[in-house]
Amino acid sequence: MGESDTSTIDVGGSLSTGGGDVAGRDVINIVLNTIEQQMPKSNVSREFKNTLITLEILIETLKAWKEVHNALDEIRSKFDQFKLPIASATYRRQMLPHKSVKLYWRPVLGKVEHFENRIHEVVEIEKKFSKSKIYDKQLVYTDRENDVVECRKKGFLLIDLSKNVESVIVSTSPMSQQKYLIESMKMKIGFDNFWWMNLSNLADELDNNITEAMYISDKLLRESAEMLYKFSQRQLAIKGK
Predict the structure, then answer these.
(1) Segment of 2-16, 87-101, 183-197, 208-222 carrying the highest mean pLDDT
(2) Are 166 and 106 in contact (CB under 8 A)?
(3) What is the Cα–Cα distance from 200 to 84, expressed in whole angstroms?
(4) What pairing do the DSSP bridges indicate for beta strands 9-11 and 238-240?
(5) For residue 3, what is the DSSP state?
(6) Secondary structure (H, E, C), 128-171
(7) Tens of pLDDT along 140-187?
(8) What distance in Å separates the CA atoms of residue 81 and residue 93, rounded to the nearest whole number?
(9) Which residues contact residue 182 at a Cβ distance below 8 angstroms, ignoring those fewer than 6 apart?
(10) pTM of the model
């Protein structure tokens, strides 16, 4: 596009996800507003049409990673509410009643099911993105395909670990009050309860996995925002400060 048919927009702020909502939403709004301003009244050129197609793919990719980011945030919030009493009881060589464990776990499972849908969606979108004509070295980070594969692995491992935790919880019959007191007393004097220690270890493993999945998905989210921004700079004359 020539200078005569483009407008210039200043974009302030950072694309970082740290410390609050990702600025990708602001980038999308700026891009859409710019398109509206620059859209020819008639005789839309092939170049402009191709630009719109590319922007649609980039926006779809960014929004998909934002959904994954939000889903993992929700898992982290609910999982911390589950993990804290588990870790606290384990540290004190105690165990929680089976009913309490189920109560703390139920909200986590619901968030994991939501995340499972999001991770499947983003993987399919990335496949479409990687096969598109815009997948070039000038726009795409060199290690992006490997990062997507790694994030997919972390995401599916998160789902599998959650199923393992669920299996441990539901496969164990609730203890009678008398048995619970006896098992708690045995733990106090140094005898581990297999069910409780298995649950505690799985919770630790899932905790680490959530952190790893959040790290790599946030990296891909930031890159998606930056790719949209770079392409918009190049094609729509949007400039950053």
Answers:
(1) 208-222
(2) no
(3) 11
(4) parallel
(5) G
(6) HHHHCCCCCCCCCCCCHHHHHHHHHHHHHHHHHHHHHHHHHHHC
(7) 667 888 899 999 999 999 999 999 999 988 877 666 666 766 777 777
(8) 19
(9) none
(10) 0.77
